[in-house]
Amino acid sequence: MPNAGFKSTRSKISQKISNQSKSELNPDDILMTSGAAGALNVILHSIINEGEEVIIFKPFFPEYKFYVDNHGGKSLFCDFKEDFTPSIDNLKSLISSKTKALILNSPNNPTGVSYPEKILIDICQVVSEAEAKFNSDIFIISDEPYRYLEYEDSNQPFIFDLHKNGIIASSFSKDLSIAGERIGFVALGEKIKDKELIIDALNFSNRTLGFVNAPALGQRLVENSINALADINKYKTKRDYFYSELINFGYEIVRPTGGFYLFPKSPINDIEFTNLLKKEKILVVPGTGFGAPGYFRISYSVDDSVIENSLDGFKKVIKSFKT
Amino acid sequence: MPNAGFKSTRSKISQKISNQSKSELNPDDILMTSGAAGALNVILHSIINEGEEVIIFKPFFPEYKFYVDNHGGKSLFCDFKEDFTPSIDNLKSLISSKTKALILNSPNNPTGVSYPEKILIDICQVVSEAEAKFNSDIFIISDEPYRYLEYEDSNQPFIFDLHKNGIIASSFSKDLSIAGERIGFVALGEKIKDKELIIDALNFSNRTLGFVNAPALGQRLVENSINALADINKYKTKRDYFYSELINFGYEIVRPTGGFYLFPKSPINDIEFTNLLKKEKILVVPGTGFGAPGYFRISYSVDDSVIENSLDGFKKVIKSFKT
């Protein structure tokens, strides 16, 4: 098998993306990877030179910092607005001649919020202007394992339809509910700069970082279930119920549109607040680690009974701050 | 699943090693990885600080250099003797206060030769003396995907029975003939320095390098076939036949004892010689890339018909140099 993976698997994925996007991909534009985490490391190893900068949008998946560090890059963090979309003004101030890439994550972990198309277009415009100004190429890496776990039919655009140097990192862990199998992919747009060179670099990186290739059984699995999707109505029902209950208790939450997270505001320091929840046997994650102090993350990818049994605890803790 | 993998799988592997070695391992001494390549990267990321040195024995698997580079280490290469065992004198001259680790590979790719126990003991003695002299800890990493593909019942000792700071990196690709599934492991000896700290570092590295965990299906597979082994008699028959034929043609070869490689001497520059073989439609790899110019590698992990059909070409090319 080539380091890129089985051609038959890559063919299925390139067809699916070609059908859904405005781009025409072929199997060589796809590299099968050890999940989205593997995809991101392979991409960053391939494009970053020592000291180049990568802009990450807050709130962010905490591993991004390590991934950038692994390959000698430097992370910069872009602020967010109340609705969890990026501050375009802050992005403008961060982008420079040192910027090599941006990492987008929509639908987002930890917020569950998707960036509206308008925001994606604004981001791409800032990037294009910077490319022109600094005579550089800036890659927008869209990490999108939750693309098909969207509840509002947003049909999020494909990044390479909006920006020439767009790269997708994705995974089947959520689509097929197979977390742990480590199967994902990189997809390049048809017009990306130095495409052949990037494909060679991705293959080389996949091999020499020790991934070698994506697990063969996982590749066969996704090849044969390319259009399958976990029952997202189950997630949607959980979201609707859990969100409504927490709002009723007095929590302030931006309503998530995808994924399986809620990211409420914390009435006090988020680490202190999550410790209070822990005393009620509720495990949630402080926002500080996501670059968003003052919030906390709840995962609702759990049994209904777990959600139901947590409600009294959530109610009790917030009531003590709402008198 | 913890980043280290399923406890049930780790338990089976630790039991197997405990039964075969002089050490008593428990499941927490095992970390399931994405093959031996993943294991080596996870180990090197966990133990190397920027600029520390790793000694690699020639002839070597070429990827080792990249693995060491990935984590800021510097590779040094130890010379070999005519029988493909390491030059202990050269090892003594290379080892220093900067040495953090050695990478051993026995049975060896590309030579197919196993290091005799006496050589392993000599290496360990040099390392122990250096540890005492420099008041340091030096890890010996034994990369041994071919351990169970031994034809001479050598019963190679386990590295942590010979050296306290011994670490095994291995894979099931060869044992079970499942190359491509990316399933392997790290095993630590019971007396390794700062064991808890190293286990934490291995778990962290497995996660943040983007491996996250070893593929779940692969873990289940090896858990349920822990004592299975590909039919090594098939390999042995191929080795015996191929080796005898080539020797008869006039090739000079150290007789391999394991794996599925032959590493003959080249009568001229190895790159030129392999190009002559290529004209006979025979694909072999020049020794230069393995740190051993003047040799070339043949893989006999192919159908018998491929071996048989190659013989005329091998004969023709060597005859032109043996008049």
Q: How are helices and strands ordered from N to C of chain A? A: HEHEHEHEHEHEEHHHEHEEH
CATH topology of the largest domain in chain A: Aspartate Aminotransferase, domain 2
The proportion of strand residues of chain A reads 5-15%
Helical segment count of chain A: 11
Oligomeric state of shown chains: homodimer
SSE arrangement:
The structure is a homodimer of 323-residue chains.
Chain A lengths: L6 H14 L9 E4 L1 H13 L5 E5 L5 H8 L3 E5 L9 H7 L4 E6 L12 H18 L4 E5 L15 H4 L3 E6 L12 E5 L6 H14 L7 H8 L8 H18 L11 E2 L7 H10 L5 E2 L9 E4 L4 H16 L4
Parallel strand pairs in A: 2-3, 2-4, 4-5, 5-6
Antiparallel strand pairs in A: 1-7, 6-7, 8-10, 9-10
Helix pairs in contact in A: 1-8, 2-3, 2-7, 9-11
Overall description:
- Two copies of one chain form a homodimer.
- Chain A is an alpha/beta fold and 323 residues long.
- Chain A folds into two domains: 7-223, Aspartate Aminotransferase, domain 2 (3-Layer(aba) Sandwich); 232-319, Aspartate Aminotransferase, domain 1.
- Helices cover 40% and strands 14% of the residues of chain A.
- In chain A, strand 5 (139-143), helix 6 (159-162) and strand 6 form a beta-alpha-beta unit.
- In chain A, helix 2 (35-47) runs parallel beside helix 3.
- The longest helix of chain A has 18 residues, at 117-134.
- At the A-B interface, helix 2, helix 3 and helix 8 of A face helix 2, helix 3 and helix 8 of B.
